[in-house]
Design brief:
By secondary structure, the protein is of the alpha+beta class. Helices cover 40% and strands 12% of the residues. Belongs to the CACTIN family.
Length: 492
């Protein structure tokens, strides 16, 4: 007879099978009731899971900004690589290109096998070849990279370059009597600091700071000047440390491709010294900026296309907040079928705003794009084909205007359409084959002046079609107005 059945007849319990029992099978508890094995979740793991699932609004905003900064930095590095490969690099591009060999955050899909063969000047060589105006521009470019960079070693690289760029700019300034007196002991300072390693410089820095903070009777000017020079040498030592890592990485990449060049690089002292490109205005490629219609006696390089108005010294907004927004938008680049749009119209300045006495009026900066494309109507389909396309026409606009320093941030900037000569919406005064134009005027509160652009006057398409749909928003100091024109279909 079955042992379990016999035990049930006799009123006793069934024999327990302690060995070989399935761990996921039902088990007996002390009350002789069947229950499933419980697996309590550790409290720390549960807290971690819930914390990763839910983020506060501030945390979401921080994460959004961090992701956006990563994208902008990635695009800036990609554009620097392209300009170096095409022999049209700016000084900042050479500095970014040198760093790419040890940059763990770079996108490997952007790498080119021929990049390691490109000879670019060493960072200090780039700084030595620039004028005061060019160094000022380079300083702003380095600060942009330094702000966006999150990698510790990369950030140290840009920090060192920032210090050396500032030192170089200071050296190019004319010295007064006090400066000449300090320059006379520069050779003694060099003899003290030049042979020291980074660790020795850091130890000496602590000693000098302790001496300056003490109450001892010392020559304060001398020790402060020595501390300034020490910080420069410390930046050089840190930069040399990064350059050694760059050199080692390049040697490793060159060995299988070009053993002779790898050996020459290994025997060289630091990064190889190449012919320094001429960054002077009007020079042959590579140049800092594209030459514009300026006089040959101009000492500063021309601004890039679409940003010429920012080169003038007027009442434009050049705050750090505005520059950060502008650089971030410029780094996004221009999409397919887009062009930079700068058809700004001058508004009459007879009447000053009521707040002009309290705040200094300034013009907002902007980075606008116009969307161009082909219109395949019946006429164009008859007379043109894809090999011989018709002329491009305006299909829409993307306005990005920066207002980071608005006094009253609760009131968003607005815009309005202005049609001249009494023309109303829908009316046309344009001759055959031409399109009417109108002004779009952007209005904001203090301290920003109004700004206007001349655009094609056609009916807007207010549908939301991905990136090219209608958008009107004001967020994080940026007024964005994106729209396309409705397509007109003629039926018989």
């Amino acid at each position: 007879m079955n042992p379990d059945r016999l035990a049930m007849i006799n009123g006793s319990r069934s024999p327990r099978k302690s060995e070989g029992r399935d761990i996921i099978a039902p088990r007996y508890n002390p009350s002789n009731r069947i229950s499933k094995p419980s697996r309590p979740t550790p409290p720390k793991a549960a807290a971690t899971a819930s914390g990763s699932r839910y983020l506060t609004q501030d945390e979401q905003s921080e994460q959004f900004v961090a992701d956006e900064d990563k994208f902008v930095l990635k695009q800036a590095k990609k554009k620097a690589d392209i300009r170096v490969r095409e022999n049209r690099a700016k000084p900042i591009d050479y500095l970014a290109f040198n760093l790419r060999f040890i940059d763990t955050d770079r996108d490997v899909f952007d790498d080119d096998d021929e990049d390691v063969e490109i000879d670019v000047p060493a960072p200090e060589q780039v700084l030595e070849s620039l004028t005061a105006d060019q160094l000022k521009e380079l300083d702003e470019d380095i600060r942009s990279y330094h702000t966006l960079e999150a990698n510790a070693r990369n950030k140290e690289y840009w920090t060192s370059l920032l210090a050396l760029c500032g030192h170089r700019r200071q050296k190019l300034k004319p010295h007064g009597p006090e400066g000449r007196a300090l320059a006379s002991v520069a050779s003694d300072v060099d003899k003290i600091l030049a042979p020291k390693t980074l660790e020795q410089l850091e130890a000496l820095e602590k000693q000098i700071k302790a001496k300056l903070s003490s109450n001892e009777p010392i020559d304060t000017d001398y020790w402060e000047e020595l501390l300034k020079s020490l910080l420069v040498y410390k930046a050089k030592a840190k930069l040399n440390k990064v350059c050694e890592a760059i050199k080692a990485a390049r040697i490793g990449l060159l060995r299988p491709r070009n053993p002779e060049k790898a050996k020459a690089l290994e025997e060289s002292d630091g990064l190889p010294t190449t012919t320094t490109p001429n960054f002077a205005p009007g020079a042959s490629k590579p140049v800092v900026r594209q030459a514009a219609t300026a006089s040959s006696s101009s000492q500063s390089s021309a601004p890039p296309p679409g940003t010429a108005r920012f080169a003038s010294t007027g009442n434009e907004d050049f705050s750090q907040a505005t520059k950060a927004l502008y650089d971030r938008e410029v780094a996004r680049g221009v999409g397919e079928g887009e062009e930079i749009f700068t058809s700004e119209e001058t508004l009459p300045s007879d009447t000053k705003p009521l707040w002009a006495d309290k705040y200094r009026p300034r013009k907002p900066r902007y980075f606008n794009r116009v969307q161009m494309g082909y219109e395949w109507n019946k006429y164009n389909q008859t007379h043109y084909d894809h090999d011989n396309p018709p002329p491009k026409v305006v299909q829409g606009y993307r306005f990005n205007i920066f207002y980071p320093d608005l006094i009253d941030k609760t009131k968003a900037p607005t815009f309005k359409m202005i049609r001249e000569h009494g023309r109303r919406r829908g009316e046309s005064f344009a001759p055959a084959g031409k399109e009417d134009t109108c002004l779009i005027r952007f209005i904001a509160g203090p301290p920003y002046e109004d700004i206007a652009f001349r655009i094609v006057d056609r009916e807007w398409d207010y549908s939301a079609k991905k990136e090219r749909g209608f958008k009107s928003s004001f967020d994080k100091g940026i007024l964005q107005l994106h729209f396309q024109f409705k397509k007109i279909y003629y039926r018989k």
